Amino acid sequence: MKHARADFPKDFLFGVATSSYQIEGHGFGGAGRTQWDDFAATPGNVKNAENGAVAVDHYHRYPEDLDLVAAAGFDCYRFSTSWARVMPDGKTVNPEGLDFYDRLTDAMLERGIKPCATLYHWELPSPILDMGGWRNRDIAGWFADYTQALMGRIGDRMYSVAPINEPWCVAWLSHFMGYHAPGLRDIRATARAMHHVLLAHGRAIEVMRGLGMDNLGAVFNFEWADPADDSAEAAEKAALYDAIYNRWFLGGVFKGAYPEKVLEGLGPHMPDRWQDDMALISQPVDWCGLNYYTRKLIGPDGGPWPGVKEVEGPLPKTLMGWEIYPEGLYNFLTRTAREYTGDLPLIVTENGLASPDVVKNGKVDDPQRIAYLDAHLDKVRQAIAEGVPLKGYYIWSLLDNYEWACGYEQRFGLVHVDFETLERRPKASYHALAEKLRR
Ligand code: PNW
Question: Are 39 and 66 in contact (CB under 8 A)?
């Protein structure tokens, strides 16, 4: 790796991220069924119909995994907690679930790792989905109760907390595009989910303030949109893509307002009196997290609203087929600070890639990952040099894991996992980072 800890401000935090359903293993320890178990069981939704029942068995192997976080010299561990483990029916507490997150928290602290929690990384309890899931306004109250139960137990030891991982994925990807659970393609469901997910964010922040917690934030996934050609149509479509993907959620949380051009399409389907919720949604938070992977090229042609069509870009791609475009990270860091968050601390809460691992003589080489991280860290340094209040950079992910609709095919880890034996083996990128991060 080109960059070392010494190249960053003294208090800059390096971290590594995971999520509960992608690593823990599910369906035991009193945990309930989730929408991803249901979604994966329907053929065609997930590669090989794979699910997170075993994942990488982090539930039992977390001491070894946290040892890896600590040994690399990471300051922070961004993990998520499973609603369905804490409340199997979405409403009733499972003491075993609370005990697990209590142990996990203490295991981080014992190793000098800062616990950075996310309360929802997509494993909705199935009984909540049966009641409408994100389409039902009541979800915000149920989510607040879950927040209270869990943070009442571990909140005193959290370094930072964000309620929701990637509201765009929760709402648009899952209710409009149908790529993620619950797999809907329905504009009315989408409009409701786009609003209720931020309402749940607001309610959870309110609950945690009530518990006296601070360092609370919001985590968004961003994709830079470039027009595919010089036409006015392509520019307009790229701007609409940007408004749906990025500006809806930033606007909601930091301005208390949604972009007009998205409301033109979603407006007729929005829940009644949604405007009354905007003060709760835009209450102050302490930091803003950005997950960044790629950009999209948007063509001039349309169809029915929103009529946004992605076209294939010319840049080198990762195994996911995502273009490698570090400039997009720079663009988001500078634009977010300039237009939305001002002096508020920003954190890159995810950045990384799926890349081919070359396993030879017991070693795992992943040169593409090292190059990708270096290229993005260049942009991180450039943004900091220009005054962006960026306070940390977390890599997705610690371990190869369950990559949602791609099943176990795509490997995002710094640590290779043999999915048969579940043996962990640090990749070359892990060793390279460890050498640069040790204090
Ligand atoms: C993020 N998209 O998800 C998530 O936070 C992780 O759980 C996930 O493993 C990681 O990125 C890599 O995919 C995304 O289709 C999943 O645009 C899909 C999209 C964006 C983000």
Answer: no
Residue 438 pLDDT greater than 90, yes or no: no
Distance 375 CA to ligand 1 centre (A): 20
pLDDT at position 401: 98
**Domain harbouring 319, CATH code:** 3.20.20.80
Q: Which pLDDT value is given to residue 302?
A: 86
Pocket-forming residues, ligand 1, beta carbon under 6 Å = 19, 22, 165-166, 169, 173, 221, 291, 350, 396, 403, 412
Question: pTM here?
Answer: 0.98
254 contact partners, CB below 8 Å, separation of at least 6: 282, 288, 340, 341
Which structural domain, as residue segments, surrounds residue 92? 21-287+294-344+381-389
What are the φ and ψ backbone dihedral angles of 430, each rounded to 5 degrees? Answer: -60, -50
Average pLDDT over residues 210-215: 98
pLDDT value, residue 91 = 98
Q: Give how many domains the chain has, as a whole number.
A: 1
Q: Is residue 323 part of a domain?
A: yes
Strands 346-350, 287-298: pairing kind:
parallel
ipTM given for this complex: 0.90
In the residue annotation, 312 being an active-site residue is answered as no
Q: Quick check: is 396 in a domain?
A: no
